[in-house]
User: Fold ABC transporter substrate-binding protein from Natrialba swarupiae.
Amino acid sequence: MTGTPRHSGTAPSGSNSDFSRRAMLAGTASATVAASGCIRQFRTTVNRDGIDQLSISITTVPADSDRESIQLTRAIRESLEAAGMDVSIEMKAQEEFLRTVLVNHDFDVYVANHPGGDPDSLYESLHSQYVDEAGWQNPFGFANLAFDDLLEGQRSADDEDREAAVATTLEAFAAEQPFVPICVPQEYRLARTDRFDGWDADLAPTALAYLGLEPTEEGIESLRLVHTDARLSENLNPLSVEYRDAGTITELLYDSLAVAVPHEERITGWLADDWTWTDGTMSVELREDVTFHDGERLTAEDVAFTYRFLADTTLGETDVPAPAPLFRGRVAAVDEIDVVDDGRLEFSFGVGEPAAERALSVPILPEHVWRPRSEPATASGVRVAAGTTEALVTGNVPPIGSGPFAFVDVEERDHVSFERFDEHFTRRTSVSLPEPTVERLRVAIDPRSASAIEVINGNDADVTNRPLESYVVDDVLETTPEDVGVLESPSRRFYHLGFNARKAPFSNPRFRRVVAGLIDKAWLVEDVFDGYARPTAVPVTAEWTPESLAWDGADPETPFLGTDGEVDVSAAAAAFEEAGFQHDGDHLRVRR
Assistant:
């Protein structure tokens, strides 16, 4: 069972009540966002009438969706309560949670697993232009013009300047704490090594992990995945922020111009046979004779349509654009697209080459299928927000792409089946890319890691598509049969506490910094993740973490206000008072 933080009244040896030099600089720069929160709290300290204990709700998912998220939430609740807040937990099913947080922005704080982890994701996660959009584009409502400049600078930097630009951005992030990164889990998957050779943990969770596998004997014609998230069988829309998570199945169904190679920080050509980069212009040449699964030819017009459609699914038919919540930050890097001929395009970018190459990784959609979905959405008995298009609500069954596998059938909460698309360009002898080596691919739905392990060990599946939950890892490492391999890889995802900066006091960086100091990340890694994670102060992979923010036994910017999971009540009260909030020793109070 997960323990909960305890609290005491003894001051710790260290405190984060004093801002660092970075925090003071960032605090000055962030006056535009923090003003309303700071003024409100200043008035609270002057006028003591009408002041109540701060009550907040933490939104998260139940254990059957993400066991670690609810355990983190419970532990954080205990810490916040020890610091004088009245805290409740609001649990929502995964798709409802994502709709609440990413679409409706109707929350105080939340705990979840963030899909980012690379510097490019910082731009879409935190730039102020995205505060009113849906998706992982700034669900926090964080708005800071000085920070925008840093985000734009690191996004525009080329390779030789990018590391320094990213480090500067992360220094400002740590000072502002727009959200609190907690830890990066280590990922473990199981794979049947007696049926396939070529498993590569570093390629998970991308489609590349399932291409190029070699059956160990003749007659193996199916690759069997077991998947612990039923949403895959409920909706196959590649643009749905509520139903899409990791892009494995999307990448198997839809080709992109290029694909990212995990943990190598590089992009390799896919649908694009070649490209050249010159002063912000990218000339892209497509592979010849590519077709969609329905037999229609894929041309440069489909590629251009895709980028325009993802930027505005109404295709300019309304006064307010309706961008696709997924891939928003990537297509925003594109300024213009010119179709040269059926097989060539020219992209104009306002960003550096690394960010421009990331823009090549969106799924290419068939125009003849998706153009009709630019119409306003209608759903019987369901309230649809103004501006929502059919593209954003369709279940997309059957999905039509051009990828290495084509859709066959689906049974909700049971399975999704695919067959090899033999016309795919990876099957050509002239193309040197990993290809589908089996005729069929079946994804079985199984709700929990423990039962998914049994399916693998019983030889009813070949690989766990999603990483195993941390509580089973000890047993997996000790009892896995010889014909089953354990695939271990660092995650690009991270767990975090997200603030809704549209509301006070979460709009105040001083408040956010104190809350960050109430989270004992190292203790949570041991207690919730059984040690199979690493605590972090920044929302990027280890290779992008600057030395000044590297974890060295404690958070370098907001060290924990306590010891071994125990919040020090006196230190927490002093930190809130120093930040301009009223704390009477037992309760943190704000104006009604």
